[in-house]
């Protein structure tokens, strides 16, 4: 049995208005472009697989 979500989830300030769904053909439909989502993820999420590599140059904040 599936559980229906009530209301909108909490989101980051930069993602206000973001909506994603899957249509009847299995295609992902999003209100944001893939480039905009990738930019947000690059800025806000640490990549656990890459954090200990010495050969990559990341900008330090």
From TrEMBL:
Name the UniProt record assigns to this protein: Uncharacterized protein
Top-rank lineage group of the source organism: Bacteria
Organism: uncultured Aureispira sp
């Amino acid at each position: 049995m599936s559980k229906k979500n009530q209301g909108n989830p909490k989101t980051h300030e930069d993602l206000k208005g973001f909506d994603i769904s899957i249509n009847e053909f299995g295609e992902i439909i999003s209100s944001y472009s893939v480039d905009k989502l990738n930019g947000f993820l690059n800025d806000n999420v640490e990549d656990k697989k890459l954090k200990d590599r010495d050969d990559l140059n990341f900008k330090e904040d």
